[in-house]
Structure formats: C-alpha cells, structure tokens
Design goal:
The protein is of the alpha/beta class and about 260 residues long. About 45% of the residues are buried. The chain is globular. About 35% of the residues lie in helices and about 20% in strands. The two termini are about 25 Å apart. The chain has one domain: Carbamate kinase. The chain binds adenosine-5'-triphosphate (ATP) and Isopentenyl phosphate (IP8). The site of adenosine-5'-triphosphate (ATP) has 25 residues, from helix 1 and helix 8.
Length: about 260
C-alpha cells in the first residue's frame, strides 16, 4: 500500500466547460468524485484549476497584473468567490461520495511575491492529512507582497506542496491524453509523448499551442514549467486525461494509464 502523499490536480478544462463562462461540468465532477472515493488513496491532496470560473474574471479585472487601480478590488473578490463556488461543487460531490474532503482556500495560508509563492503555512495541511482528511485546494486570487494581489495557479501550488511535503507523485488530470508534439485540438495528427525527460522539455515546450480560451496562468506551457521544479526534486509526474472514465481511479490505485510521464 502507498503511504506517501499523492497530489491530484483536476484541471479547469475537466471540471468546467472552459469555453462557457461560469459553467461547471457537473457530470465529470460527480463521476470523478466517485472514482476518487472508490480508489481510497491516502494521503491525498486534491487541487483544482480555474477553468471558466476563475480565468475569465481574473482576465476581465487584470488581477494577474497586480493592484493598479481601486476598481480592481471588487474584481479580486469576485474572482476568489467564483473559485469558492466551483470548489463547493467539487467538495459537495466528494462528500456525497463518502470522501472526507475538506475545503481550504489557498489565499488563507499562502502569500506570493511577484506571483511566486513566498510564504506557505504547510503545518495546517500536515495536520489535516494526519487526521485522515483530504484537503481540497484550488488556484486562487491571493495577496502578493510586491504587487498587492496575484493569481496563483493550482499548478504552482501542486509543485510547491509536492516539494515541501515530499509527495511521491503529482497526477495532472486535463482534457487531453497528455503532452503532445503539437496541440491535439488544433492538429489531428499530433502525437502523444508517453515519456519525456527534463533534458528534452525545452524542445517539447515549443510544441505547446496558445490557449483558445481565457487562461491567465499560461495554459499548458505554465503547467509544464511549474511541474519541472517538482520533477527536479524527484517527484513523479504524470499527465492524464481525466475526462476518460476510469482513468483517475486507475492511476490512483497504481495501475498504468495512458498519459505523459515527466522524468528526471
Ligand atoms: P486550468 O488552468 O483551467 O486548470 P487545465 O489545467 O485543465 O486548465 P489547460 O491549461 O487548459 O489545462 O491545458 C490543457 C490544454 O492545453 C488542452 O486542452 C490542449 O488544447 C492545450 N494544449 C496546447 N498545446 C498542447 C500540447 N502540445 N499538448 C497537449 N495539450 C496542449
Ligand atoms: O487554473 C487559476 O488556477 P489554474 C485560478 O490552476 C484563477 O491556473 C483564479 C484564475
């Protein structure tokens, strides 16, 4: 049985309709809640992305650029609240599936500096894991010591927690099978990269297409750049398609799933 921490990031492209503002993918949320509960993987931290909840609002109010004018303050609140709403939908489904999910706002225990995590109180998460809870975090609108505020991606949180809490693995669930040699939504002939080493990443980064929908944290490119730090520290990273029923369950119980493994 696994005893080291797993971190599961559920992409906004999975739990929301990313091209329709403030639209959840309820069907995927319910199915994933069932799969995660059934897998009984512990210790486990779940983090989810912004999708059509956080990104369009953060973009509209220029939150990622930091505090520039008083009118942004309301938008900062709205962006955070949209994420709280999405988080509630996921946590409610997880509880209904019997998982002791516990919602925790990153903005309540993380401060960034120029958009990078400067201070993170991991003690509280350690105590929650010890108690058998499954903390459920998300990409959030956070206080920033240089810019006033910032958008902190779930991907950056996943990598930082994996390093600090010495996680065994990060599982990234997105809406395609993994990292391809070009954007599979644009190029039907794109080929899936099953394994990639850190040394080959710079070349692969060139294959990443621009986001077709609002994404203030860098889309697929941002994700890979964040994950790099965790891989360098020996954390296993696998990117899988969380829209394929059974994938998240199988990967959580340690079975092989089609995807991209990033290796040192
Ligand atoms: P969120 O930030 O809302 O949590 P997410 O983590 O679910 O989002 P995205 O940032 O939307 O994921 O990244 C996934 C998208 O990246 C895919 O839908 C795909 O179209 C796009 N993409 C661009 N280039 C590539 C590539 N080379 N390989 C795989 N996907 C790519
Ligand atoms: O979707 C961004 O988190 P991500 C969260 O994990 C917001 O990049 C508030 C846009």
């Amino acid at each position: 049985m696994r005893s080291r921490l797993s971190i599961l990031k559920l992409g906004g492209s999975v739990i929301t309709e990313k091209d329709k503002p403030l639209t959840p993918n309820i069907h995927a949320i319910r199915r994933l809640a069932g799969e995660i509960s059934r897998a009984e993987a512990r210790p486990l931290i779940i983090i989810h992305g912004g999708g059509s909840y956080g990104h369009p609002l953060a973009k509209k109010h220029g939150i990622a650029e930091g505090f520039k004018r008083a009118s942004q303050v309301f938008g900062f609140s709205e962006t955070h609240q949209a994420m709280v709403s999405l988080n509630s939908l996921l946590v409610k489904s997880l509880l209904e599936s019997g998982l002791p999910a516990f919602s925790i706002s990153p903005s309540s225990f993380i401060i960034t500096r120029n958009g990078r995590i400067q201070h993170l109180n991991e003690e509280i998460l350690g105590m929650m894991l010890e108690a058998g809870l499954v903390p459920v975090l998300y990409g959030d609108a956070v206080m920033d010591s240089e810019r006033g505020f910032a958008i902190l991606s779930g991907d950056q949180i996943a990598a930082a927690l994996a390093i600090d809490l010495e996680a065994e693995r990060i599982i990234m669930g997105i809406d395609v099978d993994g990292l391809y040699d070009s954007d599979p939504k644009v190029n039907p002939d794109a080929k899936l990269i099953n394994r990639i080493s850190l040394g080959d990443l710079p070349l692969a980064l060139r294959s990443i297409g621009r986001s077709h929908v609002p994404d203030v944290t860098g889309g697929m490119m941002g994700k890979i750049l964040e994950l790099k730090a965790a891989v360098e520290r020996g954390v296993e990273v696998i990117i899988i398609n969380a829209l394929v029923p059974g994938n998240v369950y199988r990967v959580l119980i340690g079975e092989d799933v089609v995807g991209t493994r990033i290796e040192r």
